[in-house]
Structures are given as structure tokens and as C-alpha cells.
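Inverse folding, one chain.
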């Protein structure tokens, strides 16, 4: 009996250890379906450039990282699969001559999904880069796809949000809005939360596409919402960041930089009661999630369209001043920076102890610790 108990404890310990050491993923825009922008992978204290890869054209698409591969789209219309260890090109998939803009890849069940500026959503085999299916919409796709169960959701500039069968690309439903859908759907508790250029935040049931409720943001919205603890957080082109109480369907608070009135294009990261978001006022803002009160601001040399990512008490964010910054989540103090010499509009992706980001001059960078 004692031997059996000992064996069971050993097995449990091994499984626990295996779980702790399991590779992390950054499988979609903002890392998680609720778009929180928080990485579950720790980065080394001292970041070094491990490799860079010339992609040939500007990169607005934020990378996805899964199973030792980084996926990123470019304005040349190529979806690249790069080895995370060395940056080597595993394969290239040509999506469209129109290019891949801000639509960021999503990886699930052996498939990588990405939208292009010709309005096509592509499903590509992660093993060899071959097309599995395509779905055409009448407008540009700048929204990033999100996989929810056996469905993939994406917005289009044709003013619709689509739900497709993830395996076949068959249309399940589409929802009409009154403006371009630029942002990425956030998924939480069976609902997709969608901001749009019609100023409306919609809660849509993923199962059947029925709109459950809506909130009028009062302004054009390009940022994607982060859904955390029953609240939606996002910025608007009315120069504000707002928090919406989803249960009450009311505005909880609004924040604007009193010294500079510029839109918020960046999507927010939400963690530990703090909201971190970039502004076109050149600042990174950290706000109290309960009140919207500013806790700190950090000024960069240009607008911040890149969406911040939080990892291990640090905020990582790019700026159009050509720099990638690491800031203290607690104080906003600059801890590190990398000068690429070209704007960073894309957002960082963090997984497996690495940070990957593309720049406007078409270079993909990977940072971590050298062995």
C-alpha cells in the first residue's frame, strides 16, 4: 500500500512538473481570446537581440507564436513561418498582392488563419504552408481572426462580422454593423465583444450570431476591447479610454489626457487592476482599472499605435519613434529600449521566453537570452 501511494505521488509530481514546463503560446492577437494582452511566459531580465529576419515589406501584423514557430504577415501579402530558435524561414504562403495589413495570425489545431487587404480570410496548414480554404468578403480585413471552439470569427470593412466553420470555412452566420469593423473580436463566456467604426460595442452570442446587447461608445473605435472581470476596456477616436460595465451596460469611467487630445488606436493590456494603453499623443498611459485615474504616463518620441503586452511586471510596447520599450508596470520607469530605426506599429508577441515583433521597414526581430 505504501509503495502504491509513493508511486501515485511520484506520478502526480511528474505531471505537475510537466504542466509547469509545458511550452507557452501566443496563438493570436493580444495573446488570449479576451484580448487581455498579458503573457504567461516570463522573459529574461536582460533582453538581447537573438536574430532578425528581412521580410521585404512593412509589417503591421503582430506575430503569433506556437510550438516553436513565429507567424507574421507582411504588406507584400506573404504569411511567413519562422523558426523561433533561429529565424529561419520554414515556409512562405502568398495570400494576396493586396497585402496583409494589421490582421494578425491566429493558430489553432494545426491551422493558421489570417486576413488580407483583398478581403480574404485564409486557413493555412501549419506543417507546410499550403492553403486549406479561403473565404472572401467584399471589404478589407484588418481585424485579426479569433478561434472560438470550432468557429473562427473575424471582422471586415464590408461592415460585417463573420463566423466560419474552422475546419471548412463554411459560413455559419454574419452580423451587420453600421461601419467598418477594424478591431478584433474579444471572446468571453460564449459571447464575442466587437467594437466598430459605428461607435457601438456589441455583445454577440457565438453560437448563433444573435446580438445580446450593445453600448454606444459615442465615438469611432478602431481599438479592440479587452474583456476582464465583467468590464470592457478600449480607446476611441474621441481621445478617450473608456470602461464599460457589461452587466449594467453602462459607462463606468472615461479617461483623457488633459494636456493633449489625440485618439487612442492601441488596444489596452489589463492586469492586476491596471490598464496600459498607447496613445497618438506619444504617451503610454497606465490607469487604475476601477476608477480610470492615471497612475503614470511615459512619453515616447512619436505616436504609440502598438498595443502593450505585460509580462512579469514589465510592459513591452513599440512606438513610431522606432523604439521598442520595456517599462516598469508599477512605476512606468524605462527599464530597457531597442532602437530599430524604423517605426513599430505592430505589437509584441511573447511566448517560450522570446519576444517577436515586426517593424515598418520589413524586419522581424526576436529578443530573449543568449545561451
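Residues assigned per position:
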Amino acid at each position: 500500500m505504501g509503495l502504491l501511494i509513493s508511486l501515485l505521488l511520484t506520478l502526480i509530481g511528474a505531471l505537475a512538473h510537466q504542466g509547469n514546463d509545458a511550452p507557452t503560446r501566443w496563438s493570436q492577437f493580444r495573446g488570449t481570446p479576451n484580448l487581455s494582452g498579458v503573457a504567461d511566459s516570463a522573459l529574461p531580465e536582460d533582453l538581447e537581440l537573438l536574430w532578425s529576419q528581412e521580410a521585404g515589406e512593412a509589417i503591421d501584423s503582430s506575430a503569433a507564436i506556437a510550438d516553436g514557430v513565429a507567424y507574421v504577415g507582411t504588406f507584400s501579402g506573404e504569411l511567413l513561418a519562422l523558426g523561433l530558435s533561429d529565424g529561419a524561414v520554414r515556409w512562405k504562403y502568398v495570400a494576396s498582392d493586396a497585402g496583409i495589413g494589421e490582421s494578425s495570425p491566429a493558430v489553432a489545431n494545426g491551422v493558421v488563419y489570417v486576413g488580407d487587404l483583398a478581403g480574404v480570410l485564409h486557413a493555412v496548414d501549419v506543417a507546410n504552408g499550403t492553403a486549406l480554404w479561403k473565404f472572401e468578403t467584399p471589404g478589407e480585413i484588418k481585424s485579426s481572426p479569433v478561434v472560438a471552439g470550432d468557429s473562427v470569427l473575424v471582422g471586415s470593412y464590408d461592415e460585417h462580422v463573420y463566423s466560419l466553420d474552422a475546419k471548412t470555412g463554411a459560413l455559419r452566420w454574419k452580423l451587420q454593423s453600421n461601419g467598418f469593423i477594424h478591431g478584433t473580436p474579444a471572446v468571453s463566456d460564449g459571447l464575442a465583444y466587437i467594437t466598430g467604426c459605428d461607435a457601438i460595442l456589441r455583445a454577440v452570442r457565438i453560437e448563433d450570431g444573435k446580438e445580446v446587447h450593445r453600448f454606444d461608445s459615442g465615438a469611432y473605435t478602431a481599438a479592440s476591447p479587452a474583456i476582464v472581470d465583467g468590464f470592457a476596456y478600449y480607446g476611441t477616436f474621441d481621445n478617450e479610454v473608456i470602461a464599460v460595465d457589461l452587466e449594467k451596460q453602462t459607462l463606468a469611467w472615461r479617461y483623457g489626457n488633459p494636456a493633449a487630445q489625440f485618439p487612442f488606436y492601441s488596444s489596452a493590456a489589463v492586469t492586476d487592476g491596471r490598464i496600459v494603453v498607447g496613445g497618438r499623443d506619444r504617451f503610454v498611459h497606465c490607469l487604475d482599472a476601477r476608477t480610470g485615474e492615471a497612475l503614470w504616463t511615459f512619453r515616447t518620441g512619436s505616436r504609440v499605435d502598438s498595443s502593450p503586452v505585460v509580462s512579469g511586471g514589465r510592459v513591452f510596447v513599440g512606438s513610431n519613434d522606432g523604439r521598442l520599450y520595456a517599462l516598469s508596470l508599477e512605476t512606468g520607469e524605462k527599464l530597457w529600449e531597442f532602437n530599430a530605426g524604423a517605426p513599430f506599429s505592430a505589437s509584441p508577441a511573447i511566448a517560450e521566453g522570446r519576444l517577436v515583433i515586426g517593424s515598418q521597414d520589413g524586419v522581424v526581430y526576436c529578443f530573449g537570452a543568449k545561451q
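The radius of gyration is 20 Å. The mean pLDDT is 93.
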